[in-house]
Design brief:
This protein has 17 helices and 16 strands. By secondary structure, it is an alpha/beta fold. Strands 6, 7, 8, 9, 10, 13, 14, 15 and 16 form a 9-stranded mixed beta sheet that branches. A 5-stranded parallel beta sheet has the order 2-1-3-4-5, sandwiched between helices. A two-stranded antiparallel sheet has the order 11-12. Strand 9, helix 11 and strand 10 form a beta-alpha-beta unit. Helix 3 packs across helix 12 and helix 9 crosses helix 10. The longest helix is centred in the C-terminal third of the chain and has 34 residues. It is globular and about 90 Å long. The protein starts with a helix and ends with a helix.
């Protein structure tokens, strides 16, 4: 019988997507509903002595951690986040969860690859076989791997908190994944930021250069195209996506890409690391494309070795031209969080990582901890708050659908990042800035005050006067030939009318034509009759 057990287990998994919808099987017994504890601490680190917790029977709530490890090309790494996870578990057990619950972590190594072919299902099934009672899956970082895990988790009604699972949404809409919450940046939200930027400046013809070989920028380009098809279809017909292989292609490929793109567009978005961007800017300078008539933009969400250093000064032959060329290059970034709590947290994580996990952060890094590390911390704080709120509402926190439903438009307090808001898809709401460089900034990229801040929860765009002035000065000649011609003539683009109004006008026009035709035919008949008489 033991020989047939793996086959039976695989059959149950493959049938999961069919059975899960009926909700007739759940191997876990729901917990007792408890009352939420008293007021909790809201600072990091917690001040004073920990709250006195009543001596009651404690039930373990197991968070199964499935996070990638050992791939320097990935932004998410267990080694970087391990010490922060310990601090998060300590915080929620002392300050968020009821006294009768205690969060514990069960970790499994899922390797360092990102893709649908990974061993995450093997590890999830081993946890189940070993009777580990996973109340929530935290991780993975890769969106394709998260999609692989989803059917398995859906069968057991277990929620998933992606860290960040950014590229989720290629095979289905993010709204279709009820059990998934994303606590860090997502590619779809980044895509919407870019779309709003295009709308603000009336950029209709845009070319994306995408390094398809890069594990970050390649999937991002795919998600941007899918998001455009689903949400901003008017851009789809005038936007071009050009893939290349950053690890193999030489200068001739970049020259051909730029020449072809320049014939149809003056707005070029480069999705590649700092080395790739520098190659594009160097060749663009050779062609005279960096004279201020073309917009270049790149993406560096935050400082991280995986992306490199986006600077004009690299001590090479291009430096003498790069200073001027990079003044035409804008960079999309996340708004950086700065607080005393983050400073204390960073110090503790660096110290505990070396002591407890033999991991050493690079010395002299501009930002030793990436936001992804603090976002993994927030994943545990988010889940603990969801559990406590469900208990307060008299609901079962082991019901994954109840957790996922509550997470939509949910907000909670993070001792590191303050108030955190999730949107209707349970994705973290992120704010972005647009960084530029000029001679007045000493050759460094800086945010021009609040140059471009897009607040997704409010569905609004905040533009300062400095941004308007920037467009008039630096980018006044940018845009497509069609836009330049329209601006030169001084004509304004007619506002679009909705389809209903157009249909009503067409019907009215048809009725008028029929009446006119009927009157004409009637007059002709009367004239013919009079002539015959």
């Amino acid at each position: 019988m033991d020989n047939y057990f793996p086959s039976i287990l695989m059959f149950l998994f493959l049938c999961g997507s069919c059975v899960a919808g009926t909700k007739t099987f759940n191997p876990y017994t729901p917990r007792l509903r408890l009352t939420r504890s008293a007021a909790t601490a809201k600072t990091w680190p917690p001040t004073g002595q920990p709250a006195v917790r009543p001596s009651v029977a404690v039930t373990d709530v197991t968070a199964c951690l499935l996070l990638e490890r050992g791939n320097p090309r990935l932004l998410y790494d267990y080694d970087k986040a391990a010490a922060g996870i310990d601090l998060a578990v300590e915080y929620v057990n002392e300050n968020v969860l009821p006294p009768s619950l205690r969060l514990r972590v069960e970790r499994r190594d899922i390797g360092g690859s990102c893709g649908t072919k990974s061993n995450i299902i093997n590890q999830a099934m081993k946890l189940w076989q070993q009777k580990v009672d996973c109340a929530v899956y935290i991780g993975p970082g890769c969106g394709a791997t998260a999609e692989s895990l989803y059917n398995f988790a859906d069968f057991f009604h277990t929620p998933i908190i992606g860290c960040p699972a950014a590229e989720l949404g290629l095979t289905a809409l993010a709204s279709d994944y009820l059990l998934i919450m994303r606590i860090s940046v997502s590619y779809s939200s980044t895509a919407r930021v870019m779309f709003r930027f295009f709308q603000q400046f009336n950029y209709t013809d845009v070319v994306f250069f995408i390094d398809a070989n890069d594990e970050f920028y390649g999937p991002m380009g795919d998600v941007i195209e899918v998001t455009m098809k689903n949400e901003m279809r008017e851009f789809l017909y005038t936007t071009k996506f050009q893939d290349f292989n950053g690890s193999k292609d030489g200068d001739e490929v970049y020259r051909k890409l730029l020449i072809n793109a320049h014939q149809i567009s003056r707005v070029h978005i480069i999705l590649g690391n700092s080395t790739i961007v520098r190659k594009f800017m160097r060749i663009a300078t050779e062609f005279g494309y960096t004279d201020g008539n073309t917009v270049f933009a790149a993406l560096q969400l935050f400082d991280d070795p995986a992306w490199g250093n986006f600077t004009w000064n690299m001590n090479d032959d291009f430096d003498s031209y790069a200073f001027k060329a990079y003044q035409t290059l804008a960079i999309f970034s996340l708004i950086e969080s700065v607080s005393n709590a983050l400073d204390v947290f960073q110090h503790q994580v660096i110290e505990k990582s070396k002591k407890n996990y033999n991991y050493t952060y690079p010395i002299g890094a501009s930002q030793a901890l990436s936001p992804v590390v603090t976002h993994v911390y927030d994943a545990f704080v988010l889940y603990a708050n969801l559990v406590s709120d469900l208990i307060t509402q008299g609901k079962d926190y082991r019901d994954g659908e109840a957790v996922g439903s509550l997470a939509a438009n949910y907000s909670f307090y993070s001792p590191l990042n303050g108030n955190v808001q999730l949107d209707s898809n349970a994705d973290r709401v992120m704010s972005f800035v647009l960084k530029t460089m000029s001679s007045s900034t000493a050759g460094k990229y800086q945010v021009m005050s609040t140059l471009l801040c897009i607040c997704l929860i409010a569905e609004s765009t905040l533009i300062t006067n400095e941004l308007v002035n920037l467009r008039k000065s630096l980018w006044k000649k940018n845009g497509t030939k069609k836009e330049q011609k329209r601006n030169k003539k001084g004509t304004k683009k007619k506002p679009k009318r909705n389809n209903k109004e157009k249909r009503e006008q067409q019907r009215e026009q048809q009725r008028n034509e029929k009446e006119k035709k009927g009157n004409t035919e009637g007059n002709e008949k009367e004239q013919t009759k009079e002539q015959n008489e």
